[in-house]
Amino acid sequence: MILLDGKKISEEIKNEIKFSVEKLIVNRQRPPHLAAILVGEDGASLTYIGSKIRSCDQVGFKSSLFRYSSDISEIDLIKKINDLNLDSEIDGFIVQLPLPSHIDEHRVLLSINPKKDVDGFHPTNFGKMALGLKSFVPATPYGIMKLIEKYDIQTEGKSCLVVGRSNIVGRPISILMSLRGKYANSTVTIAHSKSKNLLELTSKADIVIMALGIPEFLKSDMIQKGSTVIDVGITRVEDKSKKNGYTIKGDVDFKSVSKKAKYLTPVPGGVGPMTIAMLLQNTLDARLLNSS
Question: Fewer beta carbons within 10 angstroms: which end of the chain, N or C?
Fold first, then answer.
């Protein structure tokens, strides 16, 4: 089994980004600036934002964090987004999801300038991606595609099963895997929690991308020998033996699947670090776009 080491590849990508930033500075141009909006006190969101800020520091980006209480109104949140849209010193920004239930996420995402939408969630960017045009690609699917490329995994003509249909992972990765290209050109099937023949689908797939959100759902008897398994799942599972009270589990039973798969991502250390690296790449691209 070959481990798809997202931590290692993400560090390589960050080093490339850092080199590009140093070139900007040598040429007396400002470094890229990534901003984040965080609403509420969700523990997982705080962890993710902290990782993103540390990564910005690592590659030489400027970063800004705008924190608001969970009772902020939708109108006030969109007003802040409009301010960031007009701020020429900020190249890209993200609104950390999920948002409180009284705020319409779709309305918020629609209010982001597509040229600063480094999360790749705006319909303009999503539509361009679906057409195979240059756009900001959602960071997690972008990271998966980069892992496939870096490990030279053969995808052309292969059957690819995507388990999960979210707009953040499942739908975009299914589109990317079906587009023309050396590391795409797959025959893609999308399954989800309502699919009745999931075992039949997973056992026939050459590539399985798990984004279901159920810890250790995929077992070794559900896949064919020699398949590629990419685990997007990340769930906090209570574990009193741990100091923080929980352990991180993916959607894949790593211990059993590792004995049967040819390629496999770990959790943590697989797709997660790639997501942050590709968010930085999108921000660098936004900075270069703004200077052109």
Answer: C
